[in-house]
């Protein structure tokens, strides 16, 4: 399953790496690709949407489906 979320607060490639790294530790996430130019992150895998959003928010960003 592929989920694309809108993320607020990303401003650079370092932000992308922070989100991708945080999501790589989540059970069920096969891959994550953050893009600060589109303010989005695409997550592939079977991870629960609420968990994915919580991890992104814990990393210091706002996320919504």
Q: Could you describe the 3D structure shown?
A:
By secondary structure, the protein is of the alpha+beta class. Helices cover 34% and strands 35% of the residues. It has two helices and four strands; from the N terminus they run E-H-E-E-H-E. The protein has a four-stranded antiparallel β-sheet. A hairpin with a 4-residue loop joins strand 2 (29-35) and strand 3. The longest helix has 12 residues, at 13-24. The two termini are 14 Å apart. One of its GO terms (molecular function) is metal ion binding. It holds the Pfam family HMA.
Q: Tell me, what's the shape?
A: globular
> CATH fold name, please?
Alpha-Beta Plaits
Query: What's the gyration radius in Å?
Result: 10 Å
What portion of residues is helical?
25-40%
CATH class type: Alpha Beta
What portion of the residues fall into strands of 2 or more residues?
35-45%
Query: What kind of sheet is the major sheet?
Result: 4 strands, antiparallel
Count of separate DSSP helical elements: 2
Distance between the termini: 14 Å
Keywords: Metal-binding
InterPro entries: HMA_dom, HMA_dom_sf
Pfam families: HMA (PF00403)
Domain HMA: 1-64
Quick take:
By secondary structure, the chain is an alpha+beta fold.
Supply the key terms:
4 strands, 65 residues, alpha+beta, 4-stranded antiparallel beta sheet, single chain, Alpha-Beta Plaits, 34% helix
What's the SSE blueprint?
Blueprint: E1 2-8, H1 13-24, E2 29-35, E3 40-45, H2 49-58, E4 62-64
């Amino acid at each position: 399953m592929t989920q694309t979320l809108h993320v607020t607060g990303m401003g650079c490639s370092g932000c992308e790496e922070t989100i991708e790294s945080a999501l790589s530790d989540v059970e069920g996430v096969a891959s994550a690709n953050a893009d600060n130019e589109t303010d989005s992150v695409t997550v592939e895998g079977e991870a629960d949407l609420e968990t994915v959003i919580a991890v992104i928010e814990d990393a210091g960003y706002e996320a919504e489906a």
